[in-house]
Amino acid sequence: MKSLLKYLRNYKKESVLAPLFKLLEASFELFVPIVISKIIDDAIPSGDNSMIIKMGLVLVGLALVGMVAAITAQFFAAKAAVGFSTELRSAVFAHIQTLDFTSLDKTGTSTLITRMTSDINQLQNGVNMVLRLFLRSPIVVFGAMIMAFTIDVKSALVFVVAIPLLAIVVYGIMLITMPLYKKVQGGLDKILSHTRENLTGVRVIRAFNLEEKELDNFESDNRLLAKSQTHVGRFSALTNPLTYIIVNGAIIVLIYVGGVQVNIGNLTQGQVVAIINYMSQILVELIKLANLIVLMTKAAACGDRVSDVLKMENKPVPGKVYGSENTEVSGKADSESNTKRVVSDDEYLVFDHVGLTYEGAGAETLTDINFKVKKGQTIGVIGGTGSGKSSLVNMIPALYPSTKGSIRLNGRDLKDYTDDELRSKIGVVPQKAMLFKGTIRSNLLWGKPDATDEELWKALEKAQATEVVKGKEGELDAEVEQNGRNFSGGQKQRLTIARALVGNPEILILDDSASALDYATDARLRKAVSGIQGSTVFIVSQRASSIRNADQIIVLDDGEVAGIGSNEELLETCEVYKEIYYSQYEKES
């Protein structure tokens, strides 16, 4: 939690002025009982109306000055709190962008969303209230006690007993509720995950008529969250009644002691009223402080969760050179990394006995993958569901680093490349076509930020997406809704392929990215892509027709290479490939 305070560094002035103005307000408030005491003891018995009016105006003046101080304090507190949450949210978002796929998979999207929204909002409220009340409430409490001692020591001893009792109640409840609030936020993660999953898959749920089942599941999770919130709420709810009991008990004792003191002439009626007013001020401030403690407890729990995200680091890759904070160094320090390597045409990309094990997995996903690729070749990757096709191509741009063996590009191990250097050479079209809210142009410019319109149209032509764009009002400037929901599946796939082609990558990876295209469009796309001069193309597909003309086909079976070769060679030597190929062509014939 303490590590998050650095995000207040640009709001030092506001963080100081807010509590100072609150202290100013509190100091004026402490004079009010003294003025009232003067009216009761001096002005009313003597019938001095002018003094009553004068003292009344003093009270109005104190109220006005206190109000101005309070508004000013709240302005500075709000500015600091909002600025803090803005910088923190930006820092968390920026940090998430640096995390590798392994870290993101481990944490989960719903958890990260909760921590960037709900948790940071709780922190914002906590900072706001702390700046407004954390100094004001203790100052009023101890200031009222000191003012009471200046009036009568014997009566003020009640404060000495009451205040520690109140501190024990407030601190004890804070200790109990802090871990419970962490549990509540964890339940909120689960609810968000369930909601996100259902909204994403609403069509599937309706297609299988499982709305009632999903409602029951959601209600079950919701009830568990409500149960957790109720449990922690019971403890938090004890704060106000316990503080009321202690303070009102103290007021009863004060009235009794004050009454005795008045009877024997040691105190005036106005002084007794002033002492009781001070106790009432303490009551109000301690209730505020108790509520602040509850809010701080929530904020502290949320702060720990946000800190956990900022502390997350990418899993170090063996052999990769890092600087401070696990940041990659641009290439190896030795001269060998900076020397241009000369490699044969057959060894443009080499998988040398590569293995991949996902974090937390019980067994290897890919085992002993060994092959070489020439520059400019088209490589087909085929295999059954779960055979490791996507895992294999995801290792080329180092989205998942290999856990065994080595992968070399242009003679250099991938671990010698920085992410920027490596991915500038590679264009990836993932299985799930993803478009971002904006325009077609803004989506295509992800591939190359300074691309001209001519380059964009060329990429669209190769991706067979020209008609898609020309059919939209505004063409390149046509609107793209969130997740591209105003485009069909095939249109989205073609646009994502065009986005990858804009940057003219050395290696183009099409990870089952033409599954929504008809066979004619798929064929035209493959012909256009294979004709790109100098580019090495990886085509991952379930369709044998999509990869049968590839220069080299890699057949995977349960994470291992079942065969490598051309279509004709594999039909003679690879049983797995023959099974896939003939099953599909039997259906088509």
Give a description of the structure.
The protein is an alpha/beta fold and 589 residues long. It has two domains: 11-311, Up-down Bundle (ABC transporter transmembrane region fold), CATH 1.20.1560; 376-404 and 414-588, 3-Layer(aba) Sandwich (Rossmann fold), CATH 3.40.50. It is 62% helix and 10% strand. It has 21 helices and twelve strands. A hairpin with a 2-residue loop joins strand 11 and strand 12 (560-565). The longest helix is centred in the N-terminal third of the chain and has 50 residues, at 49-98. 34% of the residues are buried. Residues 321-340 have low confidence and may be disordered.
**C-alpha Rg, in Å?**
35 Å
Number of E-type strands = 12
Strand content: 5-15%
| Main structural class | alpha/beta
CATH class of the largest domain: Mainly Alpha
**Within the largest sheet, what's the order of strands?**
6-9-10-3-11-12
CATH architecture of the largest domain: Up-down Bundle
Main sheet attributes: strand count, strand direction, barrel closure: 6 strands, mixed
- The helix tally amounts to 21
End-to-end C-alpha gap: 66 Å
Which segments are poorly predicted (pLDDT under 50) over 5 or more consecutive residues?
A: 321-340
Shape: elongated
Number of domains: 2
Residue share in helix:
55-70%
CATH fold-level label of the largest domain: ABC transporter transmembrane region fold
CATH superfamily of the largest domain: ABC transporter type 1, transmembrane domain
